[in-house]
Write a structure and sequence with these properties.
About 40% of the residues are buried. About 35% of the residues lie in helices and about 20% in strands. It contains 11 helices and 14 strands. The strands form 3 sheets. A 10-stranded mixed sheet has the order 3-4-5-6-9-10-11-12-13-14, with helices on both faces. Strands 1-2 form a two-stranded parallel sheet. A two-stranded antiparallel ribbon has the order 7-8. With about 350 residues, the protein is α/β, with parallel strands linked by helices. The protein is elongated and about 70 Å long. Bound molecules: S-adenosyl-L-homocysteine.
Length: about 350
């Protein structure tokens, strides 16, 4: 049975038409679920019982459950249990401008980035759109807050789950639903080039972040096997296309791995690669994991890399760190759950 949080408003309209009802009922259902936050179909008081029964027979309203929650001042990390007893993570960060949440897109991940904890866990399955929507709803309910921005940067490669991610984006962006504006939604990809071209054609123009992590193919092949399928040249072409179609700035993520990709030579190469493009580089201090061969770059090396990029005229920031003392970093909570 399909989950009620899996439908776009348009799909609800089609559903109501298919049972011989008026399509404005879709709006009423959306208002119950996403504005009044009433999840019990029996309480949809402006919808008559006969239709409520049909809804109950057509859709499940199963909800993901909170398995554990770890708290820090500005960060809370959730481990959720899914209907099939798989686990996923989401992290909420409290900023002065609002609350943002980092959601997972898959159970595990097949991209096998050498330094990444999720990558060694392998993909078990894609998340359905409702399981991503529910990460947001569950956190809002638990904390009594509203989420103002969403980053699709948790476990999984979102563009390897393209259709469900697009459905998720449509649902959370709907003006009668959760209402998260396109400019407040960011999708991070390791670089699945054909899907970047597809994404650029989506009418909802979200922010794109690309995990580059190396400025040349030799190094990127070692760190990110996806580069052997879509190399840097092809990836840069897709980024340029996205910039042109969307006229939005693209974020380039660059994780700082001590003595691996953090020398001035690499800073220079990165600067040359990105020169003149409307991008900004987010330098991410590596969160050390069980991949003992990778260490976080020292502060000095990060600063030197940053200064070189700036000198080359590249917009650049160093990611503020959230929650590294509660394992909020990248697949670690789910990893430690699996170890138990
Ligand atoms: N698959 C997508 C989104 C999930 S990963 C992607 O690759 O972009 C989100 C980001 O965290 C990516 O940039 C990823 O390379 C990075 N990352 C993974 N493990 C990390 C770690 N231990 N420390 C810091 N960043 C990490």
């Amino acid at each position: 049975m399909r989950n009620i949080f899996d439908l776009t408003r348009e799909e609800f309209e089609n559903y109501f038409l298919s049972i011989g009802e008026k399509k404005f009922k879709a709006l009423q259902v959306y208002e119950w679920l996403y504005q009044k936050r009433e999840f019990d179909i029996d309480n949809f008081s402006n919808i008559k019982k006969e239709i409520r029964d049909k809804l109950k027979n057509s859709f499940s309203n199963h909800f993901i459950t909170i398995e554990t929650k770890e708290e820090d001042v500005d960060t809370k990390k959730y481990l959720f249990r899914l209907e099939d007893n798989n686990f996923i993570e989401a992290v909420v960060m409290h900023h002065n401008y609002g609350n943002s949440v980092c959601v997972s897109s898959q159970v595990g991940c097949n991209m096998s980035c050498a330094f990444c904890e999720s990558g060694r866990q392998k993909k078990i399955r894609n998340l359905e759109a409702y399981e991503i929507v529910e990460q947001i709803l569950a956190i809002e309910k638990d904390l009594g807050i509203r989420i103002s921005s969403v980053v699709i940067m948790g476990i999984g490669e979102p563009l390897d789950n393209y259709d469900n991610i697009v459905r998720f984006i449509k649902i959370i962006n709907d003006s009668k639903g959760i209402q998260i504006g396109a400019r407040h939604i960011t999708l991070s990809t390791c670089g699945l080039v054909p899907k970047i071209y597809l994404l650029s054609k989506l009418p909802i123009q979200i922010n794109l972040a690309v995990s580059l992590h190396a400025p040349n193919d030799l190094l990127r092949n070692q760190l990110m096997p996806v580069n052997k399928v879509y190399n840097i040249k092809e990836l840069m072409q897709a980024i340029k296309d996205y910039l042109q179609v969307s006229s939005r700035r693209v974020t380039i993520e660059y994780v700082m791995l001590m003595s691996v990709n953090d020398s001035l030579k690499e800073a220079q190469e990165l600067g040359d690669l990105l020169k003149g493009l409307n991008v900004y580089v987010n330098l991410i201090p590596y969160n050390e994991t069980n991949h003992l061969e990778y260490k976080r770059s020292s502060k000095n090396r990060i600063m030197a890399f940053y200064d070189r990029l700036k000198k080359l005229g590249i917009n650049c920031t160093i990611r503020r760190e959230f929650g590294s003392n509660i394992k909020a970093a990248c697949g670690q909570l789910r990893g430690s759950m699996k170890d138990k």
